[in-house]
Amino acid sequence: MSNICYILSISYIIVLILFFVKMARNNGFFLYSPLFLIYIPFITGDLLPALSYANQDKLPDNVQYVIISTIIIYSAFLFLYRKQFTTPLSIKFPEHWRSSEYSSKRIILYLVLVFILLLTGLMTGVTIGILSGANVEGLRRTSEIGIGFLREIPYMGVCVMTLVFLMAYCKEKVLKAGIICLSLGLFFFLITGHKGGLLRFALIFLAYFCFCHRNLKWYEVIAYYSIIPIAAGILQVIRQGGKNFLESIIFFQSYSNVLFEANTLAVMRRVEGYFYWGEEYFTGLVKIIPRFLWSNKPLSFDYTLKELVGYEWEGGGIPINTPYSMFINFGYYNWIGLTVWLFIIHSCYNVLIDPNRSFYTKLVILLSLNSTIALFLGNLEVMLLFLLICAFIYGRTKMI
Q1: For residues 339 and 98, which has the higher predicted lDDT (pLDDT)?
Q2: How far apart are CA 377 and CA 381, in angstroms?
Q3: If residue 245 lies in a helix (H) or strand (E), which one and from where to where?
């Protein structure tokens, strides 16, 4: 690693620590803020592994270019939007959502969505496999090809309706809300085999907690991120039908370093001189098109990267973090894409903290936000489709 890259990396980490301390002293933390969506993940997923790897070998020039250009752009946006980080959340829950006028329709819709999700888990064999102690590591990804469209809308719908239910009826029942979210997270793991389902409902619970009570304290944030590798290790062993939980938990403690070397470095060593010019984000845009209407619809872009590197295992691909995905899509014009992406993220967060925006708009943005562009686009499209279904059922979108 060059001296410039090293100095900028350490400086960026120090700046983020100062931001963290400042927020801890003011209004606390909201995990859907740009700090946790963009700026801190760049440290944990990219900078720290790069600094660790740099002691063993020289980082490729294109990796160092991505690190330097990303630090410059991220630092500029941190300065431009610094007031966002100390602005408290503002949300007004629509009281008419507690009305019993549409309660029966809500319950029926919720049960239908849950049944569809359970049906997809049974159809793919993932649910039976997990319950029987089988290894579903490969099955969890290959089985969802062609069924993703059937699963995505119910998945989003259950998330939306759960958050609304918690805010409407569990405002002072934090323990009950936690049990509901934990149960749904485990249910989503059971039907998909993905660890992300539990993480999704953990975030939904924390969003509910911040909206109804207060932002998180610094020690609560640290506890949350400390639990993640433990939960991931346990779920990984269950998914693989194994028994060595301790070894799996230890593995996930250093998971960022493993992904950086096996995914990021492997991809970056092969893309110099050839770029994909937005192909990754195109797959996110066409996510809503069912495969029975477009049989040749491209797979998730991480499968393309897996083929590029030459990995041959069954199952999923090899996703990489946003700064590097910008480079493999746009080459040395990556800074343009990063600038646009950060502007979008901060604009969305401005909506969440704006007291004059309706909660309906905030709900759409909140559950669409993601740290990766393709998932953000896909979530937004699925959310809009779910709202169209609500409009058809209720005659209006505001009675979810």
Answers
A1: 339
A2: 6
A3: helix 245-253
